[in-house]
């Protein structure tokens, strides 16, 4: 079987349509269809079937798409070994980070990558719900994701998952709030406040739900936003309280708002890097991933 044909089958499994595969691979839809038909002839079984105006993989097609991951990973590993021998590390690495992770990690990551001038980092900010980060690995070599402490990550058996850092979540309060000078607060202390929160199913919102369960009372959310700088400004102006990541918001808190640790509950988020196994084997991707891990583990917030 042609390796390029197997790669297209895997793309179809991930993306769901011939049109999307064509767009992602720089081919025409007709060319993708012809190459997939050629793969089906090579395999000798039906791999793809029509459903309405689209297509889907058969059981055989899904099995072959899964098997193709190992082939792609082996090829990437062989190429990386040859680059190791030549002492080369070059190419473009695409990384997706949610906004606050970019603020926390990207400047130091770029500093560390300065010693690899042949490696180009193409970064984009993307913040999605907790269960949707894995899907971003289709278009990016490294996806920096986060999830709440109280929840196991979604099923990611097809991905390489690299832990980066655990970031505690503190209660952000206006400086003139009666609780602002406390060493810590409990869920019962803050449950009756007006809360500013991210959308439902985001990691920080899941922790807020856990606070409500511990306090035995519902949370009153008056504003929802994914934009942490906006949340910080709203808290500073007295428009509510919020859960904010300690390391990311600490620099902004001085003179504007207070960050007070929570007791009686494990409040934090796990920040991880998600990668396809074949992309994780690439030499340039390994260079960026190693620098990312070093930036997360070597910083003073640890």
Describe the secondary structure blueprint for this structure.
Blueprint: H1 3-15, H2 18-25, H3 29-43, E1 48-51, E2 54-57, H4 59-86, E3 91-97, H5 99-113, E4 119-125, E5 142-148, E6 160-174, H6 187-190, E7 194-197, H7 203-215, E8 220-224, H8 228-236, E9 241-245, H9 246-253, E10 257-260, E11 268-275, H10 277-280, H11 283-298
Parallel strand pairs: 3-4, 3-5, 7-8, 7-9
Antiparallel strand pairs: 1-2, 5-11, 6-9, 6-10, 6-11
Helix pairs in contact: 1-2, 1-3, 1-4, 2-3, 5-11
Describe the structure.
The protein is α/β, with parallel strands linked by helices. The chain has 3 domains: 3-84, Arc Repressor Mutant, subunit A, CATH 1.10.10; 89-165 and 270-298, Periplasmic binding protein-like II (D-Maltodextrin-Binding Protein, domain 2, 3-Layer(aba) Sandwich); 168-266, Periplasmic binding protein-like II (D-Maltodextrin-Binding Protein, domain 2). It is 44% helix and 23% strand. It is built from 11 helices and 11 strands. The strands form 2 sheets. Strands 3, 4, 5, 6, 7, 8, 9, 10 and 11 form a 9-stranded mixed sheet that branches. The longest helix has 28 residues, at 59-86. The model has no long low-confidence stretch (mean pLDDT 89).
């Amino acid at each position: 079987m042609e390796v390029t044909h197997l790669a297209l089958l895997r793309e179809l499994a991930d993306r769901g349509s011939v049109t999307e595969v064509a767009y992602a691979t720089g081919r025409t839809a007709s060319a993708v269809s012809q190459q997939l038909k050629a793969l089906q002839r090579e395999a000798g079984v039906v791999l793809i079937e029509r459903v309405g105006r689209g297509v889907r993989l058969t059981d055989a097609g899904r099995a072959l798409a899964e098997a193709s991951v190992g082939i792609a990973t082996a090829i990437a590993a062989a190429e990386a070994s040859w680059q190791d021998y030549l002492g080369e590390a070059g190419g473009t690495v695409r990384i997706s980070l949610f906004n606050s992770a970019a603020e926390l990690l990207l400047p130091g990551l770029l500093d560390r990558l300065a010693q690899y001038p042949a490696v180009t980092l193409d970064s984009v900010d993307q913040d999605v719900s907790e269960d949707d980060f894995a899907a971003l690995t289709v278009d990016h070599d490294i996806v920096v994701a986060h999830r709440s402490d109280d929840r196991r990550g979604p099923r990611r058996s097809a991905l390489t998952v690299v832990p980066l850092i655990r970031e505690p979540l503190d209660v952000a309060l206006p400086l003139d709030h009666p609780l602002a000078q406390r060493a810590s607060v409990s869920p019962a202390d803050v449950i009756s406040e007006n809360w500013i929160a991210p959308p439902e199913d985001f990691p920080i919102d899941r922790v807020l739900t856990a606070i409500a369960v511990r306090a035995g009372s519902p949370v009153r959310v008056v504003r929802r936003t994914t934009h942490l700088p906006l949340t910080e400004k709203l808290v500073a102006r007295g428009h509510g309280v919020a859960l904010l990541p300690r390391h990311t918001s600490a620099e902004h808190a001085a003179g504007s708002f207070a960050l007070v640790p929570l007791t009686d509950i494990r409040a934090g988020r796990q920040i991880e890097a998600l990668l396809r196994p074949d992309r994780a084997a690439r030499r340039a991707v390994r260079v960026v991933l190693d620098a990312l891990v070093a930036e997360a583990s070597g910083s003073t917030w640890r």
